[in-house]
Amino acid sequence: MTTVLVLACGLLGLLVGSFLNVVVHRVPAGESVVAPPSACPRCGHRLRSRDNVPVLSWLVLRGRCRDCRAPISVRYPLVELGTAVLLALTAWHLGWSPVLPAFLYLGCVAVALAAIDLDTHRLPDAIVLPSYVVGAVLLLVAAAATGEWDALVRAAVGGAGLWLLYFGVAVARPGGMGFGDVKLAGLLGMHLAFLGWAELAAGAFAGFLVGGVVGVALLATRRAGRKTAVPYGPSMLVGAALGVAVGAPVAGAYLGLMGLQG
Fold first, then answer.
1. Count of domains in the chain?
2. pLDDT tens sequence across 50-94
3. How far apart are CA 230 and CA 253, in angstroms?
4. Using CA atoms, how far apart are residues 82 and 7, in angstroms rounded to an integer?
5. What percent of the chain has a predicted confidence (pLDDT) above 70?
6. Where are the transmembrane segments (predicted)?
7. Which domain holds residue 208?
8. Whole-prediction pTM value?
9. How big is the CA angle at 245 (ends 241 and 250), to the nearest 5 degrees?
10. How many CA within 13 A on the CB side of residue 153?
11. Above 80 in pLDDT, residue 243?
12. Residues 173 and 253 in one domain
């Protein structure tokens, strides 16, 4: 049954990924994500249904518009495929759990925010703020289904705690971190803490670690200078994913190494 769940979530990721391409393109510009229908930005021809099949259409068209032969960015199939892989891995890790819908939604949001931040160095409120409401509702449903109300309290405390941590960093280092990152921190902290304190601690630490590694790599390859603005949202999102995936076993191993676990 787990195989069926993983495959179903992977298929869902392909379909949602196609929509996320629209979100990534339109939300930063303040445009509607539902109208008008998708069209080639060069010739204006609307996409046919057969040209809107995730990944496959891009391969069949060889990455070009059917009408004007303008190139179509490889990012479109990568977003679709990346969303599919992320949702499939989420389903594989969490299984048939009441909390799965909350993390599937967070995974979709993460893909959109990472792509937008890389493009525009922004994490739009239009995506982040509604995600607090959707995430809270889905986590509430999960807590009600399992009776683990302490997890819901932990989510509230963890979300507020990570928000405050990032807020402190943003105030201490003006310009080094945007308030979009602060808002995202609260959303990630809420989800990570629902799973456990270990996931929250590991996800928060991994976010800073990934961000530091990326910064050093950019400096070493001279793709950025010390004053270059580097989007931090993707590092936070990768860190959160690591917290979900390995937070509990890493914390257990650390406690065992310190002799604090029986």
1. 2
2. 888 899 999 998 889 888 888 989 999 999 999 999 999 999 999
3. 33
4. 14
5. 95
6. 95-115, 127-145, 151-172, 192-220, 232-257
7. 98-262
8. 0.92
9. 115
10. 4
11. yes
12. yes
